Amino acid sequence: MKVFITGAGMLGCHTARELTQKGHSVHLYDLSPDPEYVAAIAGKKRLTTSRGDLLDLPNLLRALAQAKPDVLVHTAGFIGGQVESPPYRGFQTNTVGSVNVFEACQISRIKRLVHLSTFGVYDWNQIRKGPVREDAPRWGNRFYPATKVANEVLLDAYENYYGMECVRMRPTGVYGPGHYRGGSGGGIAMNDLVRACMGDGPIELEDRHVGPNDFVYAADVGRGIALACTAKDAPGKAFHLGAGKNYGPADFLRALRRLLPGREVKLAPGAGEKTARPRVDLSASKRILGYEPQYSLEKGIADYMEVVRRHGFWH
Questions:
Q1: What is the pLDDT of residue 281?
Q2: How far apart are alpha carbons 49 and 63 in whole angstroms?
Q3: How far is CA 62 from the centre of its chain?
Q4: In the chain, which residues fall in CATH 3.40.50.720?
Q5: Could you read off the pLDDT of 78-118 as tens digits, one per residue?
Q6: What pLDDT digit, counting tens, does each position of 18-72 carry?
Q7: pTM exceeding 0.85
Q8: pLDDT score for 118
Q9: Which of 4, 93, 190, 203 has CA 20 to 30 A from 73's CA?
Q10: Distance in Å from the first CA to the final CA of the chain
């Protein structure tokens, strides 16, 4: 199978690694791919890359004509505060760029499109208890979730009008080795924490580090996306990709003290006092995709540190 992935960032590259290890061919399409990062995370076998902007529809169509993919995975776009810097740019990239991807799929007759959304699409102010299923009401009164909700609604229309096989992925708080050009605040916070873990001296866990939140390792999300590329009953549905639990301050203290015996690990004043969101339901992902998270918080942080040690770089 040939898979075309927009975005050579953390999720694009972890998905590519999962797919190529299963024998599939992957083409990564990115505005400015980082060859060092791509090689470190995704490898080099059965993998090609090309440069291109989501807003350049003719170039995207040329790349698809050359790659001839069976499936397109759409991960590219801005995250969090980057969408608001300024909002018009964020809207152009996230929503107009996504419409270009949808349009390119139907023109190129690519049957299956796996679209990366977020668990941020939900109206969390109205959700009081979990586990939260994929049919929970959506809402966005900030630009990042608003663009993601808009993309999902537009994808519904494309799916209905053109008969496309569309799969919507809603990962939770993703962390892992990445370059964070897209603006993942949570990813940057975890990157800073891992950097501290690999240094010397005491570690102080700030509020931005410890949630509570469903922190899911990028390798788990990449595997879930890869499963969605072939799962028979996935089209027309949305799926959560998460750890299946909310990790809070006590979990971080326990994990880091096990990983770093002898190091002082403590909470900063006020860290972890905010209320956790209800956890998301993974039952549909497990039943239909065969998804099962394999990385606990401790195992995910340990693997993160090992990747950095092995490749000798920070992003």
A1: 98
A2: 10
A3: 26
A4: 2-172+218-241
A5: 998 889 989 999 999 999 999 999 999 999 999 999 999 99
A6: 999 999 999 999 999 999 999 999 999 999 999 999 999 999 999 999 999 999 9
A7: yes
A8: 97
A9: 190
A10: 31
Q: Provide long-range contacts, Cβ within 8 A and 24+ apart, for 46-53.
A: 46/20, 47/16, 47/20, 49/8, 53/97
Q: Which residues contact 289 (CB under 8 A, 6 or more apart)?
A: 224, 227, 228, 231, 234, 239
- Per-residue confidence at 312, pLDDT binned at 50, 70, 90? confident
The phi-psi region of residue 23 (left if phi > 0; otherwise alpha if psi is between -120 and 50; otherwise beta) is left
CATH ID of 2-172+218-241, from 3.40.190.10, 3.90.940.10, 3.40.50.720, 3.40.50.800: 3.40.50.720
Residue among 123, 147, 150 at smallest CA distance from 135: 123
The CATH 3.90.25.10 domain(s) of the chain lie at 175-214+245-277+295-311
Return the closest-CA partner of residue 170 out of 230, 221, 98, 218: 221
Task: Provide CB contacts within 8 A for 54, sequence distance 6+.
Answer: 6, 31, 60, 76, 77, 93, 96, 97, 98, 100, 101
What does the alpha-carbon distance between residue 68 and residue 86 come to, in Å, rounded to a whole number?
A: 35
CATH class entry, domain 175-214+245-277+295-311: alpha beta
Round to whole Å and give the CA distance between 61 and 170: 26
**Which residue type does 32 have?**
S
**C-alpha closest to that of 38 among 162, 177, 172:** 177
- Average pLDDT value for residue range 185-204: 88
Which residue has 């209800």 as its token pair? 278
Torsion of the alpha carbons at 195, 201, 206 and 212, rounded to the nearest 10: 70
Q: Which of 44, 59, 136, 43 is nearest to 97 (CA)?
A: 59
Is 273's pLDDT higher than 80? no
Place of tokens 């003719």: 58
